[in-house]
Design brief:
Layout lengths: L4 H11 L20 H8 L3 H11 L14 H14 L3 H8 L3 H16 L2 H4 L6 H15 L4 E11 L19 E8 L5 E9 L4 H6 L2 H7 L6 E3 L10 E2 L8 H27 L1 H5 L5 H20 L28 H14 L1
Parallel strand pairs: 1-4, 4-5
Antiparallel strand pairs: 1-2, 2-3
């Protein structure tokens, strides 16, 4: 019966725990060891203001107590470098000593923390004093009165969407995108944003079904928006005069263009700071929508903190052009009359 001893040996082997695989962590790069100039080039913020952003989101970002937990500082710097430099996640991962999946998780975690602060950083002026400050900012450009915001849409490129709805994401330029509506002020701060419409959706429809339009309908603001000819003319949204004939109409159009140009500049600066907005996203559609809002918040924070952008490479402004629409029935009669009186009295 000696052969039975082998079963005892096998039992002992089964009871032995396999040797634990030793964990190896990549050496992580500390961004704050960079010189100030290099730091700003890579992260679009100075060290002082980056630390303020860290402080803003630190309570919302969960720190791991063991297993190589990441500091809030490293997570914020990693996410901003990924968004600002438009590096593929593999490159950003190598720089910070993190896996590609870690980069994905970090970006989403930081974006969620920022997006939770949207009401604090993306908002229309509410009090009369705040509204007058915004109106004054636009008036100082070239004398156009009673303007509280410039509105337009910009396409953010996304990866091809599958399924039956794929065709609706393809815009008039032939690529898949989200059509993002933004209202900005004269300081280029984003005051309102809608970031969920598919690329084929017309600007006018996005505005027509937006909450900001309803707020203007309800009379919440003592001012009006300026938009291009793709929008319908109303009492609270002025568009250019089609085929201007009089000197006053031509003067109005010139002033309208110069004042409304703030939204084009806003898009340019926003995309200049965060190259992912200019070149597009390769992440999931859910994350794209989240990132757009987060980057709008970071843009506003940069303006509030007087973060300059002189050190950035120039970005060619996208040539959206006015979308071709049938204007018959698009402009309201009351809007036409309000604009006519405005032109006669102000120009």
């Amino acid at each position: 019966m000696d052969y039975l001893q082998y079963f005892d040996i096998f039992d002992e082997i089964d009871r032995e725990e396999p040797p634990r695989k030793r964990k190896f962590y990549k050496k992580r790069f500390d961004p704050f060891t960079l010189e100030e100039k290099d730091f700003r080039m890579k992260y679009r913020f100075s060290k002082v203001y980056m630390r303020k952003i860290v402080k803003l989101v630190q309570r919302d970002i969960e720190l791991q107590a063991s297993g190589g937990g990441l500091s809030v500082e490293l997570q914020v710097c990693t996410a901003l470098r990924t968004w600002a430099r438009q590096e593929v996640q593999d490159d950003a991962a190598d720089i910070h000593g993190l896996s590609q999946q870690s980069i994905t998780n970090i970006c989403r975690r930081v974006a969620l923390a920022l997006a939770s602060k949207a009401a604090q950083f993306i908002r229309m002026p509410s009090t009369l004093e705040e509204q007058e400050q915004v109106v004054s900012g636009f008036r100082n450009i070239c004398g156009f009165k009673q303007v509280i915001g410039a509105i337009d849409c910009t396409h953010i490129k996304i990866k091809k969407v599958g399924g039956d709805s794929a065709q609706y994401y393809i815009n008039r330029k032939g690529f898949s995108s989200l059509n993002v509506q933004v209202v900005c002020d004269a300081q280029l701060k984003i005051r309102d944003i809608v970031a969920h419409w598919r690329g084929s959706t017309h600007d006018a429809r996005i505005f027509r079904e937006s909450q900001i339009r309803q707020r203007f309908e309800n009379g919440e603001f003592h001012g009006r928006l300026l938009g291009d000819s793709g929008y319908g003319l109303t009492n609270y949204l002025f568009t250019p005069v089609q085929n201007p004939r009089t000197a006053k109409e031509k003067s109005y159009n010139k002033s309208h263009i110069l004042t409304r140009n703030t939204i084009e500049r806003c898009f340019g600066v926003w995309k200049q700071r965060f190259r992912c907005l200019l070149l597009g996203f390769s992440v999931s559609l859910e994350n794209v929508k989240l990132y757009i809002v987060a980057l709008a918040i970071l843009h506003n924070i940069a303006i509030e903190m007087n973060e300059g952008i002189d050190f950035l490479e120039p970005v060619i402004s996208e040539d959206n052009g006015d979308q071709q629409v049938l204007r018959e029935g698009l402009d309201s009669r009351s809007g036409q009359e309000t604009r006519r009186l405005f032109i006669e009295t102000q120009f």
